[in-house]
Amino acid sequence: MNILVTGAGGFLGGHVCRRLVENGYSVIALVKEKREYPLLKINNIEFLYGDITNISSLKGAVDRCEAVFHLAAVNSFDKKDKNLFYKVNVGGTNNVLQLLKGYKDKRLVFTSTRGTLGHRPNFEPVNELDTATPEDLVDDYLKSKFIAEKNVAEAIERGLDGVIVNPTALIGPFDIKPSPIGKIILSLLQNKLPVYVGGGINLVDVRDVAMGHVLAFNKGKTGERYILGNVDIKIKDFLRLVSKYSGIPMPKIELPYYPALVGASILEIIGKITKITPLISSAKIKTAKLTNFSSIEKAQKYLDYQPISINDTIKDTIKWFKEENRL
């Protein structure tokens, strides 16, 4: 069976490709440029060079495949050109939906984000029945993903065979870019994290989320969405674990919300001048304050989704950064 994976060159996309191949599928990997992709150095992967915003570069692959895993997105809290979020995250998704329109025998697995589910007070976890409010959508990334997920849900109502997955905060090996949480781990390992901000996240191994995509494809019910996460953990406790397994002391100062927000805004201004992406952004601060705890009971019950110990994930992530001489 041929499966088209958009965003195959990304952190999660590469792991999804590997999981699919490991489970006997042939993958058509959509990537934007001809370069080396360490996660994709395996058999049964055919590269398709194209752009999710160019519908003509996708049509032939969609015709040849039995399913589409749509992961391609601008995934960042950085204040880039806001139009890019909507061009890629909404426009690219609409292109996929347009090409799948009319097919009854092709399944879509759409990768959204846990952020479209919003937040609950007092560290209470959200579930798949929750929906973000305008106050929850703190930046154009979340706003664009919310619109894209809504468009997918409407296409499913019109007859598309599709499921939606909502990953939480990813960490794990091969975090080349690195991801937002990977950047925090790397900064601590490099002794470049003098302070931290409170709040909480749901943390998960990228390899578990990749397997969750395969499970959603095989076991997910059309029209349903599934949170793919693992452990709810406060930022302080997460940094304590990274410190424990790396031997690097964690920062001792927890920055209060409003000073952190002001500081992040200043760093964003400096980043625009220097063209250097800041470690922290105002959107991240706002999100941390809201607390991103999440329930994975639905995925566990209906997909047989069983993530590994987050302690092992943190160890593997630290090991990979060290082996890649990122310290």
UniProtKB/TrEMBL annotation:
SUPFAM superfamilies: NAD(P)-binding Rossmann-fold domains. One of its GO terms (cellular component) is cytoplasm. GO terms for molecular function: aldehyde dehydrogenase (NAD+) activity. InterPro entries: Epimerase_deHydtase, NAD(P)-bd_dom_sf, NAD(P)-dependent_oxidoreduct. It holds the Pfam family Epimerase. Residues 3-229 form the NAD-dependent epimerase/dehydratase domain. This is NAD-dependent epimerase/dehydratase domain-containing protein. It comes from Candidatus Falkowbacteria bacterium RIFOXYD2_FULL_34_120. The lineage of its organism: Bacteria, Candidatus Falkowiibacteriota.
